[in-house]
Specification:
The chain has about 90 residues and is α+β, with helices and mostly antiparallel strands. The protein folds into 2 domains: about 40 residues; about 55 residues, HU Protein, Chain A (Irregular), CATH 4.10.520.10. The protein has a 3-stranded antiparallel sheet with strand order 1-2-5. Helix 1 crosses helix 2. It is elongated.
Length: about 90
């Protein structure tokens, strides 16, 4: 499912227009991104938690030359699925 399909699904479930659904979805994702970028944790009960995670500096290798290189420490976004989300995905049949 891409963003357009998600907007269609939200519009159908809520009875709002696709333009309104797009505005709501865009605002929600922007708010989550801004909060996590500022170091905050965003918890949506039943869905999951978005949070910044720190990665330590580590040693890596260039696979082409096998040369060692230092990968610097960085902060990355992380997501942990909530209990209900995990259970629904585990129960889903292909």
């Amino acid at each position: 499912m891409n963003k357009g399909e998600l907007i269609d699904a939200v519009a159908d479930k809520t009875g709002i227009t696709k333009k309104q659904a797009d505005a709501v979805l865009t605002a929600a994702t922007e708010a989550i991104v801004e909060a996590v970028a500022n170091g905050d944790k965003v918890t949506l009960v039943g869905f999951g938690t978005f949070e910044p995670r720190d990665r330590k500096a580590r040693e890596g290798r260039n696979p082409k030359t096998n040369e060692k290189l230092e990968i610097p420490a960085t902060r990355v976004p992380g997501f942990s699925a909530g209990k209900n989300f995990k259970e629904l995905v585990a129960a889903a049949k292909d």
